[in-house]
# Entry
Amino acid sequence: MIRKKVKLAYITNDSSRKANYKKRKKGLMRKMSELSTLCGISACAIMYSPYESQPEVWPSRIGFQQVLSKFKMIPEMEERKNLVNQESFLSQRIVKVVEQLRKDYKDKREKEMTQVMFNNIYDKWVVHGESSSSLSMVALPSMMMVMPKVILRTGTEDIMQLDVKKMDPMKRQQWIMELMNNNNNNNNNPQTHVGGEEMMFQFDDNINPNNGH
Amino acid sequence: MIRKKVKLAYITNDSSRKANYKKRKKGLMRKMSELSTLCGISACAIMYSPYESQPEVWPSRIGFQQVLSKFKMIPEMEERKNLVNQESFLSQRIVKVVEQLRKDYKDKREKEMTQVMFNNIYDKWVVHGESSSSLSMVALPSMMMVMPKVILRTGTEDIMQLDVKKMDPMKRQQWIMELMNNNNNNNNNPQTHVGGEEMMFQFDDNINPNNGH
DNA sequence: CCCCCTATTTATAACTC
DNA sequence: TGAGTTATAAATAGGGG
# Structure
């Protein structure tokens, strides 16, 4: 039982690596829990490995779903039908953006992490339902990228509301899978790169500008 | 230098708790790094404490920004101006929803975690700029909640594009702060609660439904 | 605040079943 | 393959500078 001093390098032996991962994951989760308990801080950890289909997450979803429940009241005002055009446009915009994104996914590791990150965020914060899939998370980056410029641009007094009762989770899932299934066109076109600053929110007026405390 | 066995409970002594946090955070970061290196897995950790204004994140943003850079090509197609109305509506919708959400924020710990989680996700995945603020993240949960029903509803062939060059990060920040500053109306109205299933995506057609592999 | 020191606890590499 | 065992490496509590 002579124990070697750990060499900080990728463990090439498959079974050793897996065993190492299992042990260290457990230890890390415990450390996470201890830190949170001892110091009363909020923390979160996500680990994604080929050994498990679902990512390992700390803490359990329970804590986060308390927060989630506070967001559930959003759809309470609705019943408006005249937004179909806007929604159609935006939906299509999302589709295009997601397709664009898909083409530039090259690094599988990074891609998986993308999915995992957003899958977890999504599961915790947005949807709490049976139909969450890790695949679906590819859509979220695009949403988070597109929404700031599509949505948060101006501010008028006109309030319009939505009918959210029409939603169909089944078709949503199909759509997401469609986007995911033909993957890796692998064109890394540098001309498509645009600096990040343009992608931030904009609000032209209607908001008191003297509040940047 | 007698060392007590750690009792797994909140450390009431302020300085001890902080010292403990500092040490354990460092250890946890190292463990995270080791696990990632040794086992070649993707992982992420976020710790939010009152001792630091910015949350502690592993890994550094660098790794994630490699992924982020792949999203930066999104604005490459643009120059369309006839979307002002849609954007105005949606912007206002967001404002309303954020206000609604703000009223139901009661638990400060959870609220802070909300901000932290989204702040980190946002910093890593969406914006890579100087003007990111943890305050701004209150807007993101609302976006992620609203977008699925506002946006991803139908699918037509009509593609419209946006002019993203007009954006003004300064005003965005002011708006976000405006939303944040008058906080805690504290009405926990149960009638505003709506089940989560209605909030999922919907795509009515245009997507091959035979692909739910 | 930060790093350092050291006794001690804790995590875990290598091994066995 | 996974769950125990044990000796050793690593982390860290308490204290000092």
Observations:
- The radius of gyration of chain B is 21 Å.
- The helical segments of chain B are 14-39, 61-71, 84-104, 108-126, 139-150, 169-181.
- Residues 61-109, 121-213 of chain B have pLDDT under 50 and may be disordered.
- Residues 1-6, 22, 31 of chain B lie near DNA strand C (CB under 10 Å from a C1').
